[in-house]
């Protein structure tokens, strides 16, 4: 696991965007996209590179991590809508090649299995962007999730619903259920890139990177993956015991992966 510590959020976004852009330029065609506040700086940096530097996503397709159950793609807080508003509508990726779970399917359990099968059939995902929740969740794999889980329907914890209430008119408007890629599905990706900023993420980051491998911190499953980059700002790195080592190790840039 490579841990990259930057001073502030914008630098984190540029660093993660470097990874995605390098992957695309090296032949990556399947991207895993996350929503929420954590990856916004990444998307802004990628949009700038597309507009100013000609970075093209025309050959790419993308898979979203998760979706709220009961919100149609037209709903402003559905992740299918958010990812288009924040990123894909601003670059040259084909909108038909931006895939998300169907949260309004007649049978959401079947929809979850079909989405997992689609990722397996088309994938693997070359680069998967991730955020992390204050309780250590990635995607919507809440504490207690199986480390080998596949895409499925999950019930959100009250902490997660309250954390996401800022995007809605109140916590009562936040759906209680989601379809999310499982931890096993996420770990099928070739390169996982987790971005976290702010002191409120510091405990979760430390547990994921340096704590024990445990379902109590779902993000700790990243410790098992062969290619993980964790990009954090100084505030989110505050509880890392080995922060000085990570800063020193960054001097040695790993070889660029080919896709």
UniProtKB/TrEMBL annotation:
Catalytic activity: alpha-D-glucosamine 6-phosphate + H2O = beta-D-fructose 6-phosphate + NH4(+)
Pathway annotation: Amino-sugar metabolism; N-acetylneuraminate degradation; D-fructose 6-phosphate from N-acetylneuraminate: step 5/5
Every Glucosamine/galactosamine-6-phosphate isomerase domain range: 21-223
GO biological process, one term: N-acetylneuraminate catabolic process
Superkingdom to which the source organism belongs: Bacteria
Regulation: Allosterically activated by N-acetylglucosamine 6-phosphate (GlcNAc6P).
Keyword Chaperone: no
Keywords annotated in UniProt: Allosteric enzyme, Carbohydrate metabolism, Hydrolase
CDD domains: GlcN6P_deaminase
Any single Gene Ontology cellular-component annotation: cytoplasm
UniProt-annotated site: Part of the allosteric site, residues: 145, 152, 154-155
Residues of the active site: 66 (proton acceptor), 135 (for ring-opening step), 137 (proton acceptor), 142 (for ring-opening step)
GO molecular-function terms, A-Z: glucosamine-6-phosphate deaminase activity; identical protein binding
E.C. numbers: 3.5.99.6
SUPFAM superfamilies per record: NagB/RpiA/CoA transferase-like (SSF100950)
Family annotation (PROSITE patterns): GLC_GALNAC_ISOMERASE
Its job: Catalyzes the reversible isomerization-deamination of glucosamine 6-phosphate (GlcN6P) to form fructose 6-phosphate (Fru6P) and ammonium ion.
Family: Belongs to the glucosamine/galactosamine-6-phosphate isomerase family. NagB subfamily.
Protein name: Glucosamine-6-phosphate deaminase
Organism annotation: Mycolicibacterium moriokaense
């Amino acid at each position: 696991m490579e841990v990259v510590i930057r001073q502030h959020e914008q630098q984190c976004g540029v660093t993660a965007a470097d990874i995605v852009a390098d992957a695309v330029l090296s032949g990556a065609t399947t991207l895993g996209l996350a929503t929420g506040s954590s990856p916004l700086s990444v998307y802004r940096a990628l949009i700038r590179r597309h507009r100013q530097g000609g970075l093209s996503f025309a050959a790419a397709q993308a898979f979203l991590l998760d979706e709220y159950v009961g919100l149609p793609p037209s709903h402003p807080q559905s992740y299918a809508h958010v990812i288009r508003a924040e990123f894909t509508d601003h670059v040259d990726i084909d909108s038909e090649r931006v895939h998300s779970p169907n949260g309004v399917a007649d049978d959401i359990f079947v929809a979850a299995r079909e989405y997992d099968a689609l990722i397996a059939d088309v994938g693997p995902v070359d680069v998967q962007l991730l955020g992390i929740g204050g309780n250590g969740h990635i995607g919507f794999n809440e504490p207690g999730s199986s480390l080998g889980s596949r895409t499925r329907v999950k019930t959100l914890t009250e902490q997660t619903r309250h954390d996401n209430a800022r995007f809605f008119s109140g916590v009562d408007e936040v759906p209680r259920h989601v379809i999310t890629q499982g931890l096993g599905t996420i770990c099928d990706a070739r390169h996982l890139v987790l971005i976290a900023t702010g002191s409120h993420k510091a405990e979760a980051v430390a547990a994921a990177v340096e704590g024990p491998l445990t379902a109590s911190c779902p993000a700790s499953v990243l410790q098992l993956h062969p290619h993980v980059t964790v990009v954090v700002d100084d505030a989110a790195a505050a509880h890392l015991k080995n922060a000085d080592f990570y800063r020193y190790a960054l001097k040695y840039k790993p070889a660029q992966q080919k896709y």
